Amino acid sequence: MDRVSVVTDIRQANQNAAHENRKVFDKCGSCVINLMSAPGAGKTSVLEATIREIAPSFKVAVIEGDLETTFDSDRIRAMGVPAHQITTGSVCHLDARMVAKALAVFPPDGADLVVIENVGNLVCPAEFNLGEDLRVMVFSVVEGADKPKKYPLMFHTSDVVLLNKIDLLPYSGVALSELLRNVVEVNPRAAIFPISCRTGEGMEGWIGWLTQELKTRSRQALSTLKT
Ligand SMILES: Nc1nc2c(ncn2[C@@H]2O[C@H](COP(=O)(O)OP(=O)(O)OP(=O)(O)O)[C@@H](O)[C@H]2O)c(=O)[nH]1
Ligand SMILES: [Mg+2]
User: With a 6 A CB cut-off, is 37 part of the ligand 1 pocket?
Assistant: First the structure.
């Protein structure tokens, strides 16, 4: 088999598994976010801050992906939120079959929101559909205003881009206006929120957007049930 056929087969197998995951999520009535970023941009910090704001109103479950350790799922469980850790060993992204295996032992029954925190990597995770509703990307502003253009795929395929660590802007030499312009050029339809998990600045915009999205989706699910 040539390389093109192997890649095509891998993509098709992933699409099939993502489709099956979708059915499980639909049955559970969950909205699913694939949370992606380069290592250390602040995915778990965003998740912790988000859970603190929405947990009273919405039931959350979390699937964590890392090469090694249960550090991130431990952080989420410490908040009283159910979390399951996938450790990928040497694989630099989650794929739909890994998530299917997790769902077999960690069904998100009754969760309004399931967040899948992907492996920290700015490239490969964006190539694999996990069966999610929404892609949310976290980008650490200190990494530079040019990154949306140099690593466009994750920016391009995300519904939301959270520009995190804006508290560090004064020390970084990065111009937020230039970064915003580059994100919009790569993906004009993304909702973009400059935030700081450290100070809480800008978080209300993201939380408002997410809350609205979850309410709209649960209304739609109710009206589908009635018809
Ligand atoms: N100054 C500052 N630091 C932050 C902010 N958000 C997160 N951090 C710090 O950035 C580091 C990485 O944060 P994490 O939330 O673990 O990042 P992550 O993307 O989940 O990391 P991986 O899962 O390992 O890829 C930690 O030391 C956080 O405290 C922020 O808004 N400002
Ligand atoms: Mg993390």
Answer: yes
